[in-house]
Amino acid sequence: MAGQKWKIEELTVGKALEAVFWPNPQKDSKHKLRATHLDGRRAPKVVLSTDKRIVAGAPCMVRITAINKPERDDRGSIEVEYVGRAPFRIEGVYLDPVISKKLQVLLESGLNILLDGPQGCGKTVLARAIATTLGMEFVFFNCGAVVEATDFFATIQVRASQSGSPVTDFVKTDVLLALEDAHEHPEKRYLVFLDELNRCQETARNALMPALDSTRKVFHPIENRFIEIPANVQFVAAVNRGSQFSATFGIDAAQLDRFAPLQMTYLPPEEEVKLLQGRHEELPTSLVEHCVAVADAIRNSDDLPASLSVRATEEACIYLKHPLFSGDTSTLPEVLKSSFCGRFSGRWYDVGSDAGAVWALVKKVLRQRKINVPDDR
Ligand SMILES: Nc1ncnc2c1ncn2[C@@H]1O[C@H](COP(=O)(O)OP(=O)(O)OP(=O)(O)O)[C@@H](O)[C@H]1O
Ligand SMILES: [Mg+2]
User: Fold this and answer.
1) CA of 47 to the centre of ligand 1 (A)
2) Is residue 293 within 8 Å of 336, Cβ to Cβ?
3) Helix/strand/coil for 207
4) Test site for ligand 1: of 89, 100, 103, 124, most ligand atoms within 8 A of the Cβ
5) Which residue, among 219, 62, 95, 216, has the nearest Cα to 151 in the 3D structure?
């Protein structure tokens, strides 16, 4: 159904559907809000409302009050009234119910959001899914590549001119292009995702500070002037904080304060099993459960300095379903030696190292689950 267009005969006055409204770009219209989709399907006419209870950008349930036929200078419209808040769902991503509620409030308010959580807990995938679900333009920016303050907005490239002499070109980054675009398209919404925000130097990050507070301005390094950040741009950033992330730089209190922080953790084991089963249907559920149970024990171990991402459990599934591996429990210990122990310092056979401690935990959990693990030679 999704992606299909509604036929006008399918829509009748009184029908209740889900929609996301944005300010109507037709400024002189009495209808201040406009939507283009109903229940995820494209509407045959523009959907309009004057109902003040509708919050722009927040999915809501609406009821059709009128279907206006096209007239000479008008292509017709569907008028609706507010029924209630729609359940907040981010497709393809598991979200803790409390975090989900907080996220909904922050997205509606337009505040900058900071997703803070261990590696591979779904921060990047969540940011992308928010944009897709809410129909926002997704602008991905990897802050790890930023060295100087201006790198957020432009990069300098040197090329040879026809005569062979060096010419310096400024190339706009996707962030700057999106800010410019957002001015031209007030009807669109932009989610600028600043991934790995604390992997760039703090001094470079300072360039972003006025963008993130009420000043909402940034310096355009090519045009040498400040440009405003329009209201249809929302910033979401992601960080891993903690001593184990050696390539990160601290986020100072003033920078942190410009974001509403949301702490994320790994999905609960039963949800991780569902996620992996959905992606690797050919694997027996019990095998996926064993992998996730071991990962869960590693994540909950106080003695280990780092954690284990969902990428690690997914990698184990990729091995296990391959014909070169048996796809049963006999190869599980071998697979986890690389997919789990290999993500920690040292070697699995070195009992004094972190990898060795993980191997001891792998053996313990697998044996508790009645899986035969041969003794180490
Ligand atoms: N809650 C979740 N829902 C759906 N997929 C998830 C979830 N958590 C992790 N994953 C999966 O785990 C993998 C890693 O996720 P992602 O890249 O979003 O992690 P991250 O938190 O951004 O990690 P990093 O801090 O290393 O950048 C992806 O394949 C993603 O689909
Ligand atoms: Mg990430």
Assistant:
1) 35
2) no
3) helix
4) 124
5) 219
CA distances from 268 to 265, 278, 285, 289 (A): 9, 15, 16, 12
C-beta 193 within 6 A of ligand 1 = no
Q: What is the pLDDT of residues 255-277, one digit of tens each?
A: 778 899 999 999 999 999 999 99
Query: How far apart, in whole angstroms, are the C-alpha atoms of residue 116 and residue 114?
Result: 6
Q: How far is the CA of 256 from the centre of ligand 2 (A)?
A: 18
Phi, psi at 27, each rounded to 5°: -60, -30
91, 94, 244, 310: which to mutate for ligand 1, most atoms within 8 A of CB? Answer: 310
For the Cβ of 59 lying below 6 angstroms from any atom of ligand 1, the answer is no
Provide the mean pLDDT of the chain.
Answer: 89
Site of tokens 């509604």: 6
Quick one: average pLDDT of 310-328?
92
Mutation probe of ligand 1 site: the residue of 121, 141, 280, 343 with most atoms within 8 A of C-beta: 121
Specify whether the CB–CB gap between 316 and 339 falls below 8 A.
yes
- How many residues in total does the chain contain? 377
Residue nearest to atom 16 of ligand 1 (CA): 122
Q: Phi first, then psi: give them for residue 350, nearest 5 degrees.
A: -95, 100
pLDDT at 347: 95
365: region left, alpha or beta (phi > 0 left; psi from -120 to 50 alpha): alpha
Tokens 């829509």 identify what position?
11
Chain position carrying tokens 């000479």: 72
Strand partners, 168: 158
Our CA dihedral for 277, 280, 282, 288, rounded to 10 degrees, sits at -50
Q: Is the CB of 356 under 6 A from ligand 1?
A: no
Q: Residue 245: its pLDDT value, please? A: 53
List the end-to-end C-alpha distance of the chain, in Å, as a whole number: 57
Query: Hey, is 205 helix, strand or coil?
Result: helix
The finding on whether 237 has its CB within 6 A of some atom of ligand 1 is no
Provide the token pair at 137.
């333009």
